[in-house]
Design the sequence.
C-alpha cells in the first residue's frame, strides 16, 4: 500500500519549526551561560542628523577595546562590543538597551545616547541593575540630581555646569580687561541651549557684575538660515556675543555671519568651537573666536594626548570629536576598575569605579577621577582659548581651575536643592 | 492611501442584526483564548525579548488599530493621531510622578484628559474633509508637541519626564515586576481590541462605513455625520492614549518624540503594511513593522533604506496591505474551488 503525502506542511514539519522557534528564543540564555567573552552593549545614534555622534563614539570605543583585549581583556575575558543604532529616539534607545542585556547577553552598557535617550537608558539600568556608563549626555541633572542616582550608573562625559563655571570666569576676566559690558547670546532653542546659556550668563555676571545682556536669539536646532539672527545681533550692537551652537549649526552660522563681517565687530565666545567637527568644516575660520576645548589634540599639550589623537586619525582618517574622548575614557576606566577588582562582574567593577583615579591623556593633570559621591567624571581637561585659521587651531588654552569648579559646583547643587 | 471602492468595504454589508448575541459571545471567547495564550507564553518561552516585544506590540497595536477606526472605517486620514499616544504617555507619567495616586486612578484620569482634549480638537477637525482634515490634525499634533517642548517646568522639555514613573502595587499587581507589566499590557491589548471590534461591528460601526463611502447619502437619510465622526474621533483617541500609557510604563518615562508627527507616520505606515480593510490588519502590520525594525536595526544602520524598499513593495507591488492581500487571495481560491 502506498501512502500519499498531502500537499502543505506536515505535522512533523510544523513541530520541527516550532522547536526551531523555541530554540531561537532560548539560545541567548544558553550562550550567556557559556560565554568566555564579555559582551558590552552600546546603544547610540548612528543614523540621522547627529550620526556623527554615534560613529565617532563607536570609533573611539573600538580603538580602546582593541588595546584592552590585546592586554588580556577584562579580568581575562575578551570584550565583545555590540553596538546598535537607536535613531535618536528614546523609546528605541530603551528597547535597544533592554534587548542588548536581555537577548544579546551584554553584561555592561555603554550608553552613548544624547539628551533624552540617556535618561531612557538610565531607567533601563535602574530596572535591570546592569552596570551602565553614560558617555555623551552632558546634562548636569543626570548625575547631580539625587533622584536620578542609582549605584550602577556612571558618567564619563563633561558636565554642563562645569563648562559654565569655567566659561563664565574666563569671559568675565576678558570682559573686565576689555570693558565688554553689552552682551548678546545666540544659542539653539532646546534644553541644552537654554540651560547652558542660562548658567553661563549666571557665572559671567557673578564674576563681572556690570555685564548686561541686551539681545537674545534662539534659532531652532538644525536651522539652515541664520540671516535674521545675524542681522538682529548686528543691529543690537553688542560688544560681545556668546553662543553654544554646535556641529553643523555652528559652522553654518559662522559661514553666514562671515558675510556680514560679524566677527570683526565684537568678541565672540563659542563654547563648542574648539572641536574638529567645527574647526575643520568652517570655510574661513575667523581669528580670535574664544572657545572652550571640546577635543583638540594639542590640549592638554602632552605627548599622550597628541599620540591618542594621531592614532585615531591614522585609523579612521579623521580627527576625534568631543564624544570620542568621553567614550574612550569609559573603556579606560572600565579596564582599570576591572583590574582593581580583579573581576569582570558588573557589581564589583561598579564598586571599584567609585572614586577611581586613572592616568588619562584627557586629564587636566594627566589623570581623571570618577568622583564617588555622584559617580561622574571630574578632573578632565577644561579650558578656553582663541582660534587661528589653521592647525593647531587653538594654540593657547587657558586651563580652568578645578578648585573653583568644585566650590561653585557645590554652591550650584545647593541652589538647585540637590545637596 | 489605499483607495476603498464602495463595494469592497471592511466587511461585506450583510445585515448582521439577528446574530448579534452569538457573535458577541464568540468574540468574548476569542478574546479570552487570545489572552490565555498570551499570558501563558512566558511559561513556554523564557525569553525576556519576547515579553518586551509583546508589550511594544500592545502599545503600537492599540494605537494603530484605533487609527484604522478613523482611516479604514470612517475614511478620516488623521496625520495627528500620535498626539493622543503622547498625551496618554505624558498624562499617565505626570499623574504618577506628581500626584501619587494609584495606577488605576491615574489611568482613568489620563483617559478623562484625553477625552476632553480629543473632544475639543475633534470638534474643530472633523468638520473638514480629506486633506484639510489631515493637515489640521497634523497642526494640532505639532501644537501639542511644541507645548510639551516649551513647558519645561511641567514636562521636562526635550529631556522628557525623568526619574522614572513610580508604580505602587494595586490589586496584587506590581507593574515594576516585568511579568506583571507583560500580563497587564496583554490584558489592555485584548480588552482594547475586543472593544474596538464591538464598535466596528455595531450599527454605529456600519454608520461609519456609510459615511466613509458616501457622507452626503448618510446625511440625507438622517445621520448626524458630524456627531458620528466626532464620536469615533474621541473613541479612537482613548485607545491611542491607552497605547501611550503602555509605552510610558515600558520605558518608565515619557518623551516628546511620543507626540511627534513621526509616531503618527509610523501609525499610517503600520496601516499600509497590514491593510485597512480588515479589523486585524493594523495588528498584523504592527507585528510586521516591529519585527522588521528589530531585525533590520540589528543588522545595519541603513534601516531607513530597507524600510523604504519594503513600503515601496507594499505600495507599488501589492498595492494593498498584507491582510488585504491574504483575504483577497483566500477569497479567490475559494471561488475557484467553488467552480
Sequence:
Amino acid at each position: 500500500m502506498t501512502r500519499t503525502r498531502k500537499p502543505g506542511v506536515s505535522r512533523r514539519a510544523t513541530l520541527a519549526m516550532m522547536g526551531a522557534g523555541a530554540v531561537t528564543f532560548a539560545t541567548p540564555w544558553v550562550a550567556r551561560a557559556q560565554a568566555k567573552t564579555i559582551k558590552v552593549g552600546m546603544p547610540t545614534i548612528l543614523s540621522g542628523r547627529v550620526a556623527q555622534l554615534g560613529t565617532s563614539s563607536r570609533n573611539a570605543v573600538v580603538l580602546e577595546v582593541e588595546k584592552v583585549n590585546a592586554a588580556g581583556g577584562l579580568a581575562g575575558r575578551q570584550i565583545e562590543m555590540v553596538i546598535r543604532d537607536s535613531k535618536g529616539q528614546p523609546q528605541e534607545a530603551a528597547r535597544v538597551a533592554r534587548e542588548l542585556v536581555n537577548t544579546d547577553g551584554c553584561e555592561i552598557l555603554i550608553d552613548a545616547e544624547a539628551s533624552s535617550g540617556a535618561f531612557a537608558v538610565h531607567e533601563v539600568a535602574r530596572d535591570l541593575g546592569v552596570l551602565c556608563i553614560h558617555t555623551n549626555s552632558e546634562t548636569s541633572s543626570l548625575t547631580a540630581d539625587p533622584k536620578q542616582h542609582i549605584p550602577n550608573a556612571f558618567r564619563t562625559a563633561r558636565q554642563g555646569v562645569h563648562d559654565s563655571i569655567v566659561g563664565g570666569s574666563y569671559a568675565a576676566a576678558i570682559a573686565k580687561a576689555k570693558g565688554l559690558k553689552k552682551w548678546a547670546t545666540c544659542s539653539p532653542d532646546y534644553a541644552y541651549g537654554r540651560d547652558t546659556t542660562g548658567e553661563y550668563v549666571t557665572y559671567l555676571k557673578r564674576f563681572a557684575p556690570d555685564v548686561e545682556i541686551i539681545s537674545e536669539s534662539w534659532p531652532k536646532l538644525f536651522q539652515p538660515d541664520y540671516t535674521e539672527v545675524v542681522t538682529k545681533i548686528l543691529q543690537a550692537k553688542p560688544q560681545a556675543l556668546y553662543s553654544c551652537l554646535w556641529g553643523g549649526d555652528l559652522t553654518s552660522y559662522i559661514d553666514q555671519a562671515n558675510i556680514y563681517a560679524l566677527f570683526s565687530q565684537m568678541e565672540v565666545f563659542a563654547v563648542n568651537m574648539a572641536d574638529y567637527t567645527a574647526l575643520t568644516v568652517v570655510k574661513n575660520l575667523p581669528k580670535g573666536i574664544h572657545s572652550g576645548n571640546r577635543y583638540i589634540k594639542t590640549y592638554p599639550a602632552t605627548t599622550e594626548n597628541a599620540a591618542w589623537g594621531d592614532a585615531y586619525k591614522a585609523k579612521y582618517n579623521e580627527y576625534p570629536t568631543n564624544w570620542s574622548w568621553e567614550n574612550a575614557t569609559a573603556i579606560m576606566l572600565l579596564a582599570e576598575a576591572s583590574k582593581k577588582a580583579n573581576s569582570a562582574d558588573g557589581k564589583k567593577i561598579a564598586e571599584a569605579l567609585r572614586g577611581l583615579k586613572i592616568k588619562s591623556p584627557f586629564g587636566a593633570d594627566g589623570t581623571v577621577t570618577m568622583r564617588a559621591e555622584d559617580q561622574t567624571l571630574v578632573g578632565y581637561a577644561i579650558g578656553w582659548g582663541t582660534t587661528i585659521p589653521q592647525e593647531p587651531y587653538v594654540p593657547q588654552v587657558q586651563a580652568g581651575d578645578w578648585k573653583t569648579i568644585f566650590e561653585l559646583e557645590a554652591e550650584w547643587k545647593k541652589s538647585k536643592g540637590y545637596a | 492611501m489605499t483607495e476603498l471602492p464602495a463595494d469592497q468595504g471592511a466587511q461585506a454589508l450583510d445585515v448582521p442584526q439577528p446574530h448579534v448575541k452569538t457573535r458577541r459571545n464568540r468574540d468574548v471567547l476569542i478574546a479570552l483564548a487570545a489572552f490565555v495564550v498570551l499570558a501563558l507564553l512566558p511559561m513556554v518561552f523564557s525569553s525576556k525579548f519576547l515579553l518586551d516585544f509583546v508589550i511594544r506590540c500592545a502599545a503600537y497595536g492599540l494605537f494603530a488599530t484605533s487609527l484604522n477606526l478613523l482611516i479604514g472605517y470612517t475614511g478620516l486620514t488623521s496625520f495627528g493621531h500620535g498626539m493622543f499616544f503622547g498625551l496618554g504617555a505624558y498624562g499617565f507619567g505626570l499623574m504618577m510622578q506628581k500626584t501619587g495616586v494609584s495606577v488605576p486612578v491615574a489611568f482613568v484620569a489620563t483617559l478623562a484628559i484625553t477625552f476632553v482634549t480629543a473632544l475639543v480638537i475633534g470638534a474643530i477637525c472633523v468638520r473638514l474633509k480629506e486633506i484639510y482634515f489631515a493637515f489640521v490634525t497634523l497642526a494640532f499634533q505639532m501644537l501639542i508637541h511644541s507645548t510639551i517642548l516649551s513647558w519645561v517646568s511641567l514636562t521636562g522639555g526635550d529631556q522628557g519626564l525623568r526619574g522614572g514613573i513610580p508604580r505602587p502595587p494595586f490589586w496584587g499587581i506590581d507593574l515594576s515586576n516585568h511579568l506583571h507589566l507583560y500580563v497587564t499590557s496583554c490584558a489592555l491589548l485584548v480588552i482594547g481590541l475586543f472593544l474596538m471590534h464591538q464598535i466596528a461591528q455595531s450599527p454605529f460601526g456600519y454608520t461609519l462605513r456609510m459615511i466613509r463611502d458616501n457622507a452626503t447619502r448618510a446625511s440625507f437619510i438622517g445621520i448626524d455625520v458630524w456627531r458620528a465622526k466626532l464620536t469615533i474621533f474621541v473613541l479612537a483617541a482613548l485607545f491611542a492614549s491607552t497605547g501611550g500609557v503602555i509605552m510610558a510604563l515600558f520605558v518608565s518615562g515619557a518623551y516628546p518624540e511620543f507626540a511627534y508627527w513621526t509616531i503618527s507616520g509610523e501609525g499610517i505606515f503600520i496601516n499600509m503594511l497590514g491593510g485597512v480593510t480588515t479589523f486585524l490588519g493594523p495588528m498584523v502590520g504592527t507585528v510586521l513593522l516591529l519585527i522588521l525594525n528589530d531585525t533590520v536595526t540589528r543588522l545595519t544602520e541603513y534601516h531607513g533604506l530597507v524600510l523604504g524598499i519594503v513600503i515601496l513593495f507594499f505600495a507599488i507591488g501589492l498595492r494593498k496591505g498584507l491582510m488585504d492581500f491574504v483575504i483577497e487571495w483566500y477569497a479567490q481560491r475559494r471561488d475557484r474551488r467553488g467552480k
